[in-house]
Structure formats: structure tokens, C-alpha cells
Amino acid sequence: SAVISQKPSRDICQRGTSLTIQCQVDSQVTMMFWYRQQPGQSLTLIATANQGSEATYESGFVIDKFPISRPNLTFSTLTVSNMSPEDSSIYLCSVVVGDFTGELFFGEGSRLTVL
Amino acid sequence: GDSVTQMEGPVTLSEEAFLTINCTYTATGYPSLFWYVQYPGEGLQLLLKATKADDKGSNKGFEATYRKETTSFHLEKGSVQVSDSAVYFCALNRGRWVTGGGNKLTFGTGTQLKVEL
């Protein structure tokens, strides 16, 4: 298994500002992902955080809005830029533990409210 | 594309009642199937999984059987407890994770379960 720590756990932000969420894993992992869970909805994959290269974004998500860093195999950040109330969501870091058929583990999430 | 359909909630049951949460999927090939649970204020936790047809995943009294003929993976528990109150997500992953992107765990919309005394 993996212990995934996310910071902040929650925050209230003003419209137009940016916030960076950190994800720290207690072991080296190859695969790391960022998901969004909007209120009352399911999870949507934002991007795959690739170590040492640019993240791979899903349709509907762009680097200018959600820049991602992955400097090493245990850490990643997701920035939500120029926030609007529509960005109010839970943002979840997740990792694959084990080999390429391993299960996906999630952090506890960062709950952002944009006013 | 891949999709997962779950029964809508909330589902409200009395303690010790039998639980079924329906899940059907659409995917090519032979996906792996999962149930995740999200307790209030917490992140998602893997509850159980099945990686091939006719496999039965089980954990904490919950069970689900991978039925390829009906493309289903229904979650069941014989006797629910108040502590089982949570949101349950069915999900699928089509094969192996690969580096560089192209991975996606496809989730259903989630089913909220409320268990009352």
C-alpha cells in the first residue's frame, strides 16, 4: 500500500487567485494522477503526472489552467490557476502501487471552495 | 468509449438489511473492475476488485462477481451496519497501466448508502 499526504486538506480562495496542492507519497511510484471530484459528482481524471516530463492532460483540461509538476518519484503538485467558483471541487492525488497491474490508491483530497 | 453505470442513490436501509448496488459497464476487451468506498470526509479507498470474468472480489463482508455475459459487477452485502454509510463507486480499468499517459480509471457516478438504526 501507499500513504499519500495532500496539502492543503481544504482551503477557501478568492476568485482570480491560484492555489498549489501538494502530494507526497511515502514510497517511489511510477504512476501518479490528479483527479477532480465536483460536488455530488463522480471523479474525473485531470492528468497523468509524468516524472521528468510534461504532464499528459485529459480532454477538457489544459496546462495553463492546471499546471502540474513532478520533480521526483514521490512528489507532485497541481496548481489551479485563475480560479472561479466553477473550480470548487475536491482534488485528489492518486498513485499506482506495485507493477503495471497494481491497484490505484488515493489521497484524502484537497477540498477547494472558490468565492 | 468506456463507461460505468450505477444505480442512483441515495439508498436508505435499516441496519442488518441486505444490500445490492447495481453496476454495469461498457468496455472493449477484458477490463478490471473495482468498487471504491468514500466515507464522509475521507478519500477513496479500494473496497474490492476482480480482474477476470467470474472472479469474485470480497472484503469486509462485501462481495461482487465479475459477470461478463451481463457486463455487470453488482455490489452485495448480507447485513449492513451503520458504519457502512458512505458513497460507493464502481470503476473499471482496461488493462495495464502505461507510462506517459493514456491511463484512465473510469468511474460511475457513485451511490450514496445511508444505513439507519
Descriptive tags:
heterodimer, A: 115 residues, mainly beta, seven-stranded mixed β-sheet, 11 strands, 50% strand, B: 117 residues, six-stranded mixed β-sheet, four-stranded antiparallel β-sheet, 0% helix, 48% strand
Put the structure in a nutshell.
The complex is a heterodimer of chains A (115) and B (117). Chain A is built from no helices and eleven strands.
Average per-residue pLDDT of chain B, rounded, comes to 90
Described by the principal axes of the CA atoms, the overall outline of chain A is globular
- Count of separate DSSP helical elements of chain A: 0
- Report the portion of residues of chain B in β strands: over 45%
Largest interface: A-B, 26 and 26 residues
Number of strands of chain B: 12
Number of helices of chain B: 0
Descriptive overview:
Chain A has 115 residues and is mainly β. Helix content of chain A is 0%, strand content 50%. Chain A has no helices and 11 strands. In chain A, strands 2, 4, 5, 6, 9, 10 and 11 form a 7-stranded mixed beta sheet that branches. In chain A, strands 1-3-8-7 form a 4-stranded antiparallel beta sheet, with no helix packed on it. In chain A, strand 9 (89-96) and strand 10 form a beta hairpin. Chain A is globular. Chain A starts with a strand and ends with a strand. With 117 residues, chain B is mostly beta strands. Chain B contains no helices and 12 strands. Chain B has strands at 3-6, 11-14, 19-21, 23-26, 32-38, 44-50, 56-59, 62-65, 75-77, 86-93, 106-107, 111-116. In chain B, the strands form 3 sheets. In chain B, strands 2, 5, 6, 10, 11 and 12 form a 6-stranded mixed beta sheet that branches. Chain B has a 4-stranded antiparallel beta sheet with strand order 3-9-8-7, with no helix packed on it.
